[in-house]
Design goal:
Restrct_endonuc-II-like, YqaJ_viral_recombinase, 538 residues, Mutator_transp_dom, 5-stranded mixed β-sheet, alpha/beta, 3 domains
């Protein structure tokens, strides 16, 4: 129901307020943003960005650190002394304060661009544990100088770094420094007026009336009773009502003062957490049917659409530079949605001629997958793996944006990192192998994409990751890619060279056929949005 209400509000924002809402502040629930991106209330060119509530981001950060402090062994399997766990507990609030201070400092900088501010904020959040635990090597002016390397020795530092990565993933949301406290407070008050959806109040305007009463309660508090009374009977309420109002306002003020000045106390009442309810209500969108375009119209629109994808060499370079923050950039979402990206090349190239393309197109264009525990684990540990690979290779791995092919403009790739002008980096952190080393995971068939030859890593040439890497190398016009597998107990990597023959024979024909004969048809004349089966070619 919540998602339906918000989607309806976005659809009517132009008519009611003459506004386009291109940002939404939300918590960890991704259901609403999925529905909004599927509904496309302002068309496919307006990407609605979700700004994570800063309170939720920091709370999750602190909770994970507290959980880590209770573990007697690190993810590497080494024992963590109690003194270090106690040290972590004592510094948790300072870790949070360091992030808040960095956000405040970067938001006040007016002499640099927004993109540079976000990059510097990310650098500060990455460095915040160093600041708190006294390592000054990469600190800015306001960081301390004392060294503390024991945590690195027992593996606790890598675990802190993994938690830190989940924080830096939301750097731009931290930069906005917004929260949804107002909405949460109003919903809390509304729940008291409507009985928590337990009673049917939809008849005779009862629900709308209670919503309006909740708005008044949110704005003026207990004094609403006096306002209602004066509005209805044109005079002040009686003595007992005034006493009740005065008592309620006094309690509210006391509660506010306790929060501001009283020392924090342990929560005695246990939390009762309930998972999110399944959507209910109108889940099917309203379809506006119109007949399919004729074959000649489709061909004309296909030519026009392909022309919109064309970029000059300078535009390709600028796009890659401007999308280095990847999922945090609107351009990254907008441009990759029109194209095939390297992460799906293997799946498409392996499709049989007799296999329907409709389901694959539906997944690519309308899929609502926002990640699971495995992808979350990969995001949290990617930066740690990247730092270790940098130390082993003695190179600097730069962030990568979206590369667009200079000839086939409908192909794109976003590698995990760049090395100089000739190299790429692709990092995999499989959650299924978090308790073993990469070598043990391969030998025990936990990791099936690779084999070991003379104790060296070799990626199978028929695996989807190999297709992804060859696609990224061809699109970026680079010569080699370091494919890395990382677990808390070790790291293995292979240097893979670009294979133009493999691209020409096993990839390019299949990708071109899929896009030109299938995917582009849905992009220019969507049947899915009209409630009709997606075309399976012409």
């Amino acid at each position: 129901m919540e998602a339906d209400i918000i989607v309806e509000g976005f659809k009517n924002s132009l008519d009611m307020h003459n506004l386009i809402y291109n940002r939404m502040i939300g918590d960890g629930d991704s259901n609403v943003i999925k529905r909004l991106r599927l509904a496309q209330p302002y068309g496919p060119d307006v990407i609605i960005k979700k700004i994570e509530c800063s309170n939720h981001i920091l709370r999750n950060y602190i909770n994970k650190l507290h959980e880590l402090s209770k573990k007697k062994k690190s993810s590497k399997g080494e024992s963590v002394p109690g003194c270090m766990r106690n040290l972590l507990v004592s510094r948790v609030e300072r870790l949070r304060a360091a992030v808040i201070k960095a956000v405040k400092y970067r938001k006040q900088q007016n002499n640099i661009s927004y993109e540079d501010s976000v990059k510097l904020l990310k650098k500060d959040t990455v460095n915040s544990p160093n600041h708190v635990f006294g390592e000054h090597e990469n600190c800015s002016d306001y960081f301390c100088t004392r060294k503390n390397l024991d945590m690195k020795r027992v593996g606790l530092w890598d675990d802190i770094g993994s938690i830190r990565s989940s924080l830096t993933y939301h750097t731009e949301s931290l930069m906005f420094n917004l929260n949804n406290n107002a909405a949460e407070s109003y919903n809390s008050i509304l729940a008291k007026f409507v009985g928590g959806k337990r009673v049917n109040l939809c008849l005779r305007g009862s629900y709308e009336l209670r919503c309006n009463a909740a708005v008044t309660a949110y704005n003026v508090g207990a004094n609403r009773l006096s306002l209602f009374h004066k509005q209805v009977v044109k005079k002040s309420p009686g003595l007992f009502t005034k006493r009740y109002i005065k008592k309620s306002m006094k309690l509210s003020d006391s509660r506010r003062r306790r929060k501001l000045f009283a020392p924090s106390a342990q929560r005695l009442k246990p939390k009762i957490l309930a998972g999110p309810d399944e959507n209910y209500g109108a889940v099917e969108p309203d379809f506006v049917s119109h007949p399919d375009f004729s074959l000649s119209e489709l061909n004309d629109k296909k030519i026009l659409y392909l022309n919109t994808l064309k970029l000059t060499k300078e535009e390709i370079i600028a796009l890659e530079e401007n999308t280095k923050r990847q999922h945090e950039c609107e351009d990254w979402h907008r441009e990759r949605k029109k194209r095939l990206t390297a992460s799906v090349f293997g799946k498409i190239c392996k499709l049989r001629k007799t296999t329907s393309r409709a389901k694959t197109i539906e997944t690519l264009l309308y899929g609502t997958f926002q990640g699971n525990l495995s992808t979350k684990y990969g995001v949290e540990h990617e930066e740690v793996a990247k730092e270790q690979l940098e130390n082993i290779l003695s190179v600097n791995i730069e962030p990568s944006g979206l590369f667009v092919d200079s000839e086939q403009f409908y192909l794109a790739a976003s590698p995990d990192g760049l090395i100089g002008d000739d190299g790429l980096v692709e990092i995999k952190c499989p959650s299924s192998a978090k308790n073993v080393s990469p070598k043990e995971a391969i030998e025990n068939k936990i990791i099936k994409c690779c084999v070991l030859k003379n104790n060296e890593l070799h990626l199978k040439t028929n695996d989807n990751y190999y297709y992804q890497i060859q696609g990224a190398l061809h699109i970026s016009r680079r010569d080699y890619c370091y494919f890395c597998i990382w677990t808390p107990k070790g790291i293995l990597f292979e240097k893979i060279l670009r294979d133009d023959n493999f691209w020409a024979s096993s990839m390019e024909p299949q990708l071109s056929s899929f896009y030109m004969n299938n995917m582009i048809l849905e992009l220019i004349d969507s049947r899915y949005e009209r409630g009709l089966p997606i075309r399976d070619g012409l």
